[in-house]
Amino acid sequence: MNQLDQLKKMTTVVADTGDFDSIKQFKPTDATTNPSLILAASQQEEYKHLIDEAISFAKTKDPADQLSVAMDKVFVNFGTEILKVVPGRVSTEVDARLSYDVEGSITKAKHLIEYYEAAGIEKERVLIKLASTWEGAIAAKKLEKEGIHCNMTLLFSLPQAVICAEAGATLISPFVGRILDWYKKNEKPEGYPSHEDPGVLSVGKIFAYYKKFGYSTVVMGASFRNREEILELAGCDFLTISPKLLEELMSSEDPVERKLDPKKIDISIDKMELDEKTYRFLLNEDAMAVEKLSEGIRKFSADIRKLEDHLKTKLG
User: Fold this and answer.
1) What's the CATH code of the domain at 263?
2) How far is it, in rounded angstroms, from Cα 259 to Cα 151?
């Protein structure tokens, strides 16, 4: 049995891609996208019809709204196609430029869900991705109460994970590889053995915290740089993995050992009580989390603007 099939026995595998052929090949339960992945997919000829349909739809709307409508429809069109080949859910991201805008995030999330429902997709099959900011957590709390499920992304620290769990978010996506990137750049250029990888350790701590205190929020490790990081998190609730690394797992038949187990967690972790000022101070104390959160929002925002520029040429 290959490593991917072994991993699926202890962890729900999610494809981190907007490429339908990859999703069909690796047969994940869910799939997740982000602005960078959609931007890349939008440049490929085989997905041109999804862009064209969004443009045609947007042109029926008020000219002042056409670009925003086209953007939302592109994301939903890709998500709808993905749901034809995965049995579970797809994650669709709210505009990263709304990361500090509670009401803007809520409005955008509802628009996305409306388009999904118009396409015949029940909202239970969609996860709305929000940045793991204080404002993102507030938006998630309100959306979850209305039955709109949220995936909290750009998550790099335990305080972020705590506010998302307290908000009742369905799922969080702590970024493993981006944490490693920061530590390699700032502290240890030669890198770390996989069991000491700072991103791996961060997700393990979050997993233990959630299990100790009984949170229902799903932990989905994300943003992997190598296969070893994935294997060190075998047993995590979910893992979202790029096609390249899914291929590596499928190509190996080495045994996969369960590394995260709810029955074997660090029970010495103390519970955190976070109001806004305490959260903001603790986040500020973590230079890595502050820098990677800001960088992630900037990069996703940049890719959104590039996708907008691409659509503008088609809207005329």
Assistant:
1) 3.20.20.70
2) 23
| Structure-block tokens of residue 177 | 């590889």
Residue-range definition of the domain harbouring residue 210: 3-315
- What integer pLDDT is reported at residue 42 of this predicted model? 87
Q: Long-range contacts of range 195-203, CB-CB < 8 Å, 24 or more positions apart?
A: 195/232, 197/228, 197/229, 197/232, 198/288, 199/174, 199/175, 199/223, 199/229, 200/176, 200/229, 200/232, 200/233, 202/156, 202/157, 202/158, 202/174, 202/176, 203/174, 203/176, 203/233, 203/236
If 0-12 CB within 10 Å is exposed, 13-18 middle and 19+ buried, where does residue 107 land?
middle
* 30 conformational bin, left if phi > 0, alpha if psi -120 to 50, beta if neither: beta
Is residue 267's pLDDT more than 80?
no
- In this structure, what are the phi and psi dihedrals at residue 32, rounded to the nearest 5 degrees? -130, 145
How high is the mean pLDDT of the chain?
A: 96
DSSP, collapsed to helix, strand or coil, labels residue 311 as helix
Q: Which of 8, 73, 108, 129 is catalytic?
A: 129
Both tokens assigned to 245? 């690394």
Q: Can 129 be counted among the known catalytic residues?
A: yes
Domain count for the chain, please give it: 1
Nearest Cα to 174, choosing from 88, 237, 125?
Answer: 237
Model confidence pLDDT, tens digit, residues 114-151: 999 999 999 999 999 999 999 999 999 999 999 999 99
* The total number of residues written for the chain in this structure: 316
Token pair, residue 273, equals 């009580």
